[in-house]
Amino acid sequence: MFPLRLLRTARRVLPAKSLSTTGQLTDLTVDNEGIATLTLQRAPVNSLNVELLQELTTVLGQVEKDKAKGLVLTSASPSVFSAGLDITEMYNPNVERLTALWTSLQDLWATLYSAPYPTAVAINGHAPAGGCMMALCCEYRTMVSGRYTIGLNETAVGIPVPEWLIGTMCKVISQREAEVALNAGLMFTVEEALKVGLIDETATDKADAIEKSKKFIKRFDKISPIAHSLTKQRFRSDVLQPFAKNREADLNQFKYVVLQPEVQELLGQIIQKLKQKKAAK
Ligand SMILES: CCCCCCCCCCCC/C=C/CC(=O)SCCNC(=O)CCNC(=O)[C@H](O)C(C)(C)COP(=O)(O)OP(=O)(O)OC[C@H]1O[C@@H](n2cnc3c(N)ncnc32)[C@H](O)[C@@H]1OP(=O)(O)O
After folding, report:
1. Does 60 score more than 90 pLDDT?
2. Catalytic center residues
3. Domain for residue 267, yes or no?
4. pLDDT per position as a tens digit, 70-90
5. Which of 21, 24, 99, 103 sits in a 20 to 30 Å window from 60, CA-based?
6. Rounded Cα–Cα distance for residues 65 and 73 (Å)
7. Distance from C-alpha of 153 to C-alpha of 78, rounded to nearest angstrom
8. What ipTM was predicted for this assembly?
């Protein structure tokens, strides 16, 4: 059984910045209403390596411990929310590091998806794969309008989508839309994402996205933290509980898939394409 994570006492309203911490790869600030903003800042594209994944999970633990009113997740990049898992961590990998990568991703997903406080994301740029995964974990998604894309393109990089991530997606958009998109690794434009319900609203810029995210968090001002956190976890328990039982098998499948020669070849081609794209800029 997935352990329930309840906020047992009222959330505190802390003075501005009292919880603020700046890690190497993230920045956490808290406003004077007690809402935490966690900013990804691993340049250039917030790709998720072991260190960023672990730092994110640690900071989320801090947000919970300090009883912030809620969390807004965003990025310091002007055009990318997160490029997903760091592809260089999966290409010709050291197996110990690959294990750490996947277990750290599992920890982050489980911590964010079951967070006992309200969560919202201000998606201020592209959000492929692991970037979309983090957004899907939040309770409310606002995305800045522009020529950005969001979606789970794992199959396009040779990785089958695990059940817990399919389940996370199917809680947000219809199973039909999810199946069509995930089987083919399709990415959505901002307008398409809004139409299928992958995002809840659009924003003119990052400041607007953060403001809309905070407005969502404030909806819970008069809701008991225990009522909120228990109801949220009941909605999500059918995804969280099987995940908790199958973590080891999920890890072994991931390593097996990533180490297949054809997946390695595909990852090598993607790294090459990204390099060529940069050179052509
Ligand atoms: C049976 C069950 C099996 C279990 C296993 C299942 C596993 C499922 C996984 C589910 C969990 C979630 C995890 C998913 C896996 C992934 O996340 S894979 C990563 C997929 N990501 C992508 O495909 C994105 C690739 N990047 C881009 O498309 C673009 O970079 C961008 C649109 C994000 C941004 O474009 P732009 O702003 O033009 O920047 P670029 O010039 O392209 O890049 C700048 C710079 O960053 C490097 N980079 C980009 N993306 C990544 C990345 N993901 N990892 C590492 N590095 C990246 C790029 O190479 C450039 O580097 P240099 O400046 O040239 O050094």
Report:
1. yes
2. 85, 130, 153-154
3. yes
4. 999 999 999 999 999 999 999
5. 99
6. 17
7. 22
8. 0.91
